[in-house]
Design a protein that fits this description.
- This protein has 2 domains: 31 residues; 29 residues.
- The protein contains 2 helices and no strands.
- The protein is mostly helical.
- The longest helix is centred in the C-terminal third of the chain and has 27 residues.
């Protein structure tokens, strides 16, 4: 019985640490575990927005 309580306590501590690290990392894409995938997605989104921005500027000028 005491052993199960010890294991449960350790498991809860590990879960708490993992939740904290995920919350901390989510603020900065460079620190994700899969940072390469996230950066690739960010670059694609940025490129799409960069292509669309000149169209919006032209519409406003007309």
């Amino acid at each position: 019985m005491q052993n199960n309580a010890y294991v449960a306590k350790k498991l809860n501590a590990v879960i708490a640490v993992k939740k904290h690290s995920i919350i901390g990392r989510s603020k900065n894409m460079l620190h994700f575990n899969n940072s390469a995938n996230c950066m690739n997605k960010a670059l694609k989104i940025w490129k799409r927005r960069k292509c669309l921005l000149p169209l919006k500027v032209v519409e406003k000028l007309d």
